[in-house]
Amino acid sequence: MGSFVVIEHTRPIFGSTSILELQGVDQLIRDLSGKNLSKQNFWGKDLRGARLVGANLAGANLGIADLEGADLSSAILTGANLKGANLTKSRMVGANLDKADASNVNFSGASLVSLTAREARFVAANFCETDLSYSNLTGSNFARQNLSIQGANFTRAKLVFAELRSADLRHTIFYDADLADADLTGAKLTGAILLYALLHRSDLSGADFTDVKIGEDANGVPHSVKSVGQRYFEGKVKFLLTKMSNTVIDPATHRYLFAQYVTQHVSSTRKEPATDSKKEAPYPRAMPLVSIPNILW
To answer: Phi/psi at 101 (nearest 5 deg)?
Structure first.
């Protein structure tokens, strides 16, 4: 690989204090940490291993750029174009991708811990073995047939109103994640960890919910209903008004969910003893735990 060459000009471009002129498309920039690179054009550039810590890349064009192993921690990428970029094994801890377009980006093996990416586009992106724990992905669009998020870590991530239709989420970790109002129709969740996850009002219609891990043993190890049997199982996932029409579920998990549905439904019709004022006060009405009909297995 050639030497690192960065030439700085003092004239302001796009509101920045300097412009960085790359010498050759395939040259690798050494360190651009803290630089103001908003709206700059890095389309197709070779930025492998570059340091862009805290850089301002708002509105920048990074389409099909090669950023493998680059460090973009705390970088600002709001509204940036990252379509088709290679971010394999990159580091983006605490970066901001609000409303950025990261369609077809390869994030496999990357660290995106505490990422902020509200209303971002991740259509057809690759998140295999990617760490997205503690990230805020509210309203982001991951929807695409065969989208690969298999084995990703969404521990305590916020995925409210996220679009995850038809996504491959097998063995993905959603420990204590907030998936309220998320669209998971047709998603593959086989073997996924949903321990303590919040699925209120989410849509799992047509999803594969086989062998999902929604409980834990005495040592805190996540497990499925099937692995220990319903009699000894204590679920720790939060369902409320969750849609599961035509969802594929293994028999053990189905029996557990149905039992929980019946318990919840019965409690919603019970009444407290009459008070001194002779008025009957019903228990707080509990909403159905899960929309149980038409579950398939």
So the answer is: -105, 105
